Amino acid sequence: MSLKSILKEPFQYKRIDWRGYTSNHKQNEPGKAVHPHAARAGKAQKARDWKQATRRILAYLSKRKGSIYLVMILVVLSSLLTLVGPFLIGYAIDNHIIPVDFDGLGVILIGLLASYIALSIATFFQNFIMVRIAQATVFEMREDLFQHIQRLPIRFFDKRQHGDIMSQVTNDIENISATLNSSIVQILSSVVTFVGILAVMLWLSPILTIITMTVIPLMFYGLKWITKRTQIFFKEQQRTLGQLNGYSEETIAGQQMVKTFSREGAVIEGFTEKNQALRGAGFWAQTYSGFIPKVMNVLNNLSFAVIAFIGGVMAVNQVAGITVGMIVIFVEYARQFTRPLNDLANQFNTLLSALAGAERVFDIMDEDPEEDPDSSISLKNLNGSVSFNKVSFAYDTTPILKNVSFKVKPGETVAFVGPTGAGKTTIINLLTRFYDVNDGSIEVDGIDLRNVKRADLRNQMGVVLQDSFLFQGTIMENIRYGRLSATDEEVLEAATLANAHGFIDRLPQGYKTKLSQDGGGISQGQRQLLSIARALLADPKILILDEATSSIDTVTEMKIQEALKRLMKGRTSFVIAHRLNTIEAADNILVLQDGELTEMGSHEKLMKKQGFYYDLQRTKNMDAIL
């Protein structure tokens, strides 16, 4: 690639309008709900700018005030020690070098060495303590974020890419960690050094101090002009990084589907597009922020030149008591005087990247969690009766369920039949309270679900899905996930009842066999058997089977059907079946069409009615219910 193309390439991508980006980005971001208890400082609001994000990071740091105060003391000490060196050098020039005095010079050199040793010790301990503070703070933030994610409703995850959420938990938190480890001490040191040097310079020579200060307004103006633009690009960089991570996680998880349809080219093209967006945002962020240290160095050198020239003229003409040693002190102090701005410039990339990441982290923390009101009822022992009373529901604006009513007695099995989009899975989502109804009510044992504690409800429900999720770990651990307190003997019993013990026993390590993420290494049917064993171990009062026997070979299906009969015995069961013959024995079959309950009854009753269900059975038209 030629140099011309390298320089031109970033300009080929759509540039970000820093003047309009913030408002447009806010409108397009999902998840605008504000958690009433989110802002730790008191007032609930989302972290929409770097000032708010900074305040919330400081709220975490304030929990370690003792260590922070110790760091501040060490920072003040080290900053004062940095003033000693230049002063002693200037003093030595005027009093022990120009008028030759080697004895006095030796004392000065010993004092200079002692000050540098003390400075090194103070710097080491302030950095050591600050790293501990930073790691403890980030540890707490990461814990708070992950705990809050566990309390978020399913609708939050339905609207977000999982890879983007993972990017917020990992990349964004790490950016904050890097900033706390390095930038905080430098900023504190810069402030103290700035004040100390200014005081000493005014004491030595107000005239030279004024000359030194002439470049400061230019520095502040340049910093303000650049930061106003760079902040926007760092936000865009973090956002596009999250999108890229989300896309990567999605395509890696779906590699089997990608290869099945030979979509490698399309996937690469999609990745390249997002990668280019990230590169474009990163280019402008780094370019603008890279201006800062360069501009500061130019102005710093200009300050040196002005002090050396004017101070030299004044020293030669013996104006205002200016000496050669004083000029040396001022030249060195001028470098240290502008160091706070230079340090900020050098840390600017990390600082803005961390603040952009902090905004994204606090955005998640401000999402409304699933919370039960104080008046919620604790329901420990369900009988299993369920009643839908004129239930209507829509995920967004399109109605999914319309005025659906039915009742289920304890121990009954209810099956749902209907085309894709008819509302079968939505009923399950409402029953498990992943979502709440818009109109009407759902009652369990005569109590409105919205008045029951979610944990009590879900602890007495067992779910077996079509794509059963297994965690990375041993088979024993995956089955025990249904009841963590279960003994090994109880796990073996559940696996035996689920017809899973046979294939587990044939594995080289049996129940200690480690599964990769999502159960890689065993078949779909075997994963289903493990899910059934997990549900059996949980011993739920209400059982939900969502397409539990689809995509399974005939022999495995027979084992699963036998295991499901044991699992469903004595439990209120809700079944969504892909194959019609798996629901014929249900006590009640509910036919859903376009979100409405059109038919209801036993298999025999619906066959006599000769309606939609009858047509399905006669034609075995599976497309009608897919």
Account of the 3D structure:
This protein is an alpha/beta fold. It has 2 domains: 46-365, Up-down Bundle (ABC transporter transmembrane region fold); 386-624, P-loop containing nucleotide triphosphate hydrolases (Rossmann fold, 3-Layer(aba) Sandwich). The protein contains 23 helices and 12 strands. It has helices at 3-8, 21-28, 50-61, 65-97, 102-151, 154-158, 162-204, 206-213, 216-253, 255-260, 264-316, 324-337, 339-346, 348-365, 424-431, 454-459, 475-480, 488-497, 501-506, 524-538, 554-568, 603-609, 612-619; strands spanning 386-394, 399-408, 413-417, 439-444, 447-448, 461-465, 473-474, 514-515, 542-546, 572-576, 588-593, 596-601. It has a 6-stranded mixed beta sheet with strand order 6-9-10-3-11-12, sandwiched between helices. A hairpin with a 4-residue loop joins strand 1 (386-394) and strand 2. The protein starts with a helix and ends in a 7-residue tail after the last helix.
